[in-house]
Amino acid sequence: MKPDWLDTKEYPFTSKYLELEAGRMHYIDEGEGAPIVMIHGTPSWSFLYRNLIKILSKHYRCIAMDLIGFGLSDKPADFSYKPRAHAANFEALMEHLNLKDITLMVHDFGAPIGLAYAIKHPSNVQSIVMLNTWTWSLSNHYTYSKASKYLVGPLGKFLHSKLNVSTETLVHELFGEQSKLPESIQQQYIKALGDPEEHVRSLACARELVGVTKWYDELWRQRKRIQDIPTLILWGEQDKLVKIEALQKWKKFFHECYVMHFENSGHFLQEENAEEVASYVNNFIKEEQKKRQPELHQ
């Protein structure tokens, strides 16, 4: 049953669930064709991809999950909320759906989760689309450390559990200049984080931005397994959190990399530039399919 606060005109998709040890994980599976799998970050959920899915599902099979603790998925008290656990849940969904030759679309905190799968199953990932993200240790990164410590510190927890301020502040701050985004849409992100006590648990994701250096380092050491996967990078240059240095690092890393800059956009291109993003993704996948045609007919 869908919650009362959900705007089903904005999010008109059929809800599906996968029963996991941690709880029920919600996902949507719309359209037919080559699969595009979309992974969100924090504090968002599959709602972020709704406009892309409306466009791309006309030609592709679009799958978008809600990480445990987010969106319409369960928010269990005893789940670790560490990225390694989220990555295991994502792998379980992939096995459940038996998806092959996917385009993996990752954003924000979703990249370490998605790329962990790609590193483990590189032959199953046909191409990658990245939006403002990273996959390396942030322990020495001041911006992330400061944000992470605030979100899980005593003040952050108090605001969250007592006043319900921190969630709204976080969403409004991350959307930054996207204040033109209607309040009703921003409320879909705020309310999806659940009750105030549930908010505190989901903030574990923010803490883990810094707290799992070892796991990030493990992924980064294995990165060459995905270095040859064709990748499209879409980058909002006004992002206050993931700086342009991260983009430079990705550009040096991938052997076949296409970069599109959005000079006046921030962290959430899916909200600001959905039609343009969908067009780039569509063209990218079509071009990669054309390159593979000789292989398919051999």
Automatic annotation (TrEMBL):
<dbReference type="GO" id="GO:0016787">
    <property type="term" value="F:hydrolase activity"/>
</dbReference>
<feature type="domain" description="AB hydrolase-1">
    <location>
        <begin position="35"/>
        <end position="274"/>
    </location>
</feature>
<protein>
    <submittedName>
        <fullName>Alpha/beta fold hydrolase</fullName>
    </submittedName>
</protein>
<dbReference type="InterPro" id="IPR000073">
    <property type="entry name" value="AB_hydrolase_1"/>
</dbReference>
<dbReference type="InterPro" id="IPR000639">
    <property type="entry name" value="Epox_hydrolase-like"/>
</dbReference>
<dbReference type="InterPro" id="IPR050266">
    <property type="entry name" value="AB_hydrolase_sf"/>
</dbReference>
<keyword id="KW-0378">Hydrolase</keyword>
<dbReference type="Pfam" id="PF00561">
    <property type="entry name" value="Abhydrolase_1"/>
</dbReference>
<dbReference type="InterPro" id="IPR029058">
    <property type="entry name" value="AB_hydrolase_fold"/>
</dbReference>
